[in-house]
Each structure stands twice: as structure tokens, then as C-alpha cells.
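Good morning,

Attaching, inline, the C-alpha cells for the sequence recovery test we're adding to the shared suite. The designed sequence is right after.
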């Protein structure tokens, strides 16, 4: 369960940033009074154009960044006061996750499994299961530096999930990946939902939104424009596509 209440994140602007602004300001709100809930066994899609506040929101949820005000709880733990407990209960994946080039996927995943204190037998079983699901056995012992972006992203996914977190945050998890790798990730996200995990998913690929979403929120310039079920969103936009409905919301906010 993720509960976000009246979330605000303010950043101070630099002199260079202020020079480029039509109306210079010393602070900007990357996230402004945002509230929503992500429930177990459901996939919550967070949509928005670049710079909308998506990644800032997700980083706060993952206890990687502190909010200016408001509150966020992950499985009942406050991200500001109980960040260590949040880290144990969450898996956070971005499209720009970095890996150590000199290690192999197996070594990377084992390292993180050991950090979480997993039993050796449990760790090896999970590695085998995830490597099978994501078709990783053929490159499991090659150096990361020699792998393709898709192979690296698969490794990042297993690293993210090896401690079996109850909450998963995917921020542009399939960006730049081939169709087959993206399909594998989508299937894995669905499996996590079926296992009763809480999932928040951010993507620019509207086909994935249609395939995965149970609930949906649209954020633009730090503010929520829509927050409800995916079916309610589809009912509201009528015969137009999800992409067209998304654009309609963004353009409406600009008027």
C-alpha cells in the first residue's frame, strides 16, 4: 500500500536557471499538493509529460528524496521518519539504473541478496526463478560491461525484486528496450500484481498503459489532473484512444 497525502516538493533555482526564466523565481514546486493511493493487487499508472513531477514523486515514495511537506507512507512506514523500513519493503527501478561493469548479473544479484540478508538457499532459488522468467541464463555469468541494454535492464529488474518487496516502483522500466524484452517485463509486472503486490508504474508507452493499468493518475506541472480507475478514464474519454485522452487533459490544463 502506498498513501500519498498533500505532497509538495520545492526546489531552489540557480542563477543560471533564473536567467532563462521569463519571470525569474527563487523556488519552483516540482510537486504541488498531490494525493493518491496505490492498493495491493493493483497496478497504478502515473502519467505525465517530461518535467511533470513523476520521477520526483516516485523518488520520494522510494525514500530517496525528502518531501518539502505532506506525507507518504509505504506499507505503513513514513518515508521521512522510517526510510530504512521503506527500503526493505520497496523495489525501485528506473530506466537509467547503473550497474557495475566488472561484475556478472549473477554476482550483482547475489551481492544485493546478501545485503538484504537472504538465506543462501532462498537467494539461489529466486535467482534461478527470475533468470528463467526473463531468459537470462545464457548471459548470467558474463560481465555487465559486455551486455546489451536489454540484458542490463533485466539484471536491474532482478536486483530490484530479489528481496521480494511488497511494493514495486517502475519508472520508465521499458524505455529504449526491444519488443521481446519489454514484453517479458510487462508479463513480470502482471505476475507481481497477481501475487498481491502494490505496483506503481510510470511510462510514456500508451500501449503499456492499456495492458497494465488498474488505476491511473495524470500529473502535469506538479499537479494532478486526473486520479481514478483506468476504466473510469476510458469511459470519460469515450471513443478516442488513451493517448488522445492523455493529450486532451494536458492541453486542457494549458488553457
Amino acid at each position: 500500500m502506498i498513501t500519498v497525502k498533500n505532497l509538495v516538493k520545492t526546489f531552489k533555482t540557480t542563477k543560471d536557471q533564473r536567467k532563462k526564466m521569463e519571470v525569474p523565481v527563487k523556488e519552483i514546486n516540482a510537486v504541488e499538493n498531490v494525493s493518491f493511493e496505490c492498493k495491493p493487487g493493483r497496478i497504478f499508472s502515473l502519467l505525465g509529460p517530461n518535467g511533470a513531477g513523476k520521477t520526483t514523486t516516485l523518488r520520494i515514495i522510494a525514500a530517496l528524496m525528502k518531501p518539502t511537506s505532506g506525507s507518504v507512507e509505504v506499507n505503513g512506514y513514513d518515508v521521512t521518519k522510517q526510510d530504512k523500513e521503506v527500503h526493505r519493503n520497496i523495489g525501485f527501478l528506473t530506466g537509467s539504473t547503473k550497474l557495475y561493469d566488472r561484475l556478472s548479473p549473477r554476482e550483482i544479484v547475489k551481492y544485493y541478496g546478501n545485503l538484504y540478508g537472504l538465506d543462501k538457499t532462498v537467494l539461489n532459488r529466486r535467482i534461478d526463478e527470475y533468470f528463467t522468467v526473463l531468459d537470462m541464463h545464457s548471459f548470467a555469468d558474463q560481465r555487465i560491461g559486455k551486455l546489451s541494454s536489454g540484458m542490463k535492464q533485466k539484471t536491474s529488474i532482478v536486483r530490484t525484486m530479489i528481496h521480494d518487496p511488497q511494493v514495486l516502483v517502475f519508472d520508465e522500466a521499458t524505455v529504449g528496450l526491444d519488443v521481446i524484452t519489454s514484453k517479458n517485463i510487462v508479463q513480470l509486472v502482471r505476475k507481481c500484481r497477481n501475487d498481491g503486490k502494490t505496483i506503481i508504474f510510470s511510462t510514456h508507452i500508451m500501449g503499456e498503459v492499456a495492458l497494465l493499468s488498474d488505476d491511473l493518475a495524470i500529473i502535469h506541472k506538479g499537479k494532478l489532473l486526473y486520479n481514478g480507475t483506468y476504466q473510469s478514464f476510458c469511459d470519460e474519454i469515450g471513443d478516442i484512444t488513451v493517448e488522445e485522452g492523455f493529450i486532451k487533459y494536458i492541453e486542457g490544463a494549458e488553457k
